[in-house]
Request: fold
Amino acid sequence: MSTDSVDGGTAETQPEIEVTEDAAAQARDLLEGEGMDTSEAGLRLFVQQGGCAGLSYGMRFDDAPDEDDTIYTHHELRVFVDPASMKYIEGSILDYESGLQAEGFHVENPNVVSECGCGESFRT
Reply:
């Protein structure tokens, strides 16, 4: 059984969102810490208006996907992406970084043409 899959369409028709093993492990631990069922619940990755460059990433835990979400499963973590956000983040990789200056989730987005100085917002 593969640890990576896409629900809601074939891999050929759905743009891929990848999740590193570290990011999936961190998110699963947080989901479980919230008492959420990891077989149904997941991490919602979305784009919202905001920040000095115009768009910013958002993440939250949801008990279940919305009807029109694309659902990715990587390393036993379910990731939900709504159609409006998909056009901005298709092809992205969700990673977890820990270091001396910062610790947290980071989106590596190939669609970004510019970011603000702090790296919290972007333009495509």
User: Anything to note?
Assistant: The radius of gyration is 14 Å. The chain has one domain: 4-123. The domain at 4-123 is CATH 2.60.300.12 (Hypothetical Protein Aq_1857; Chain: A;). The chain has a mean pLDDT of 82.
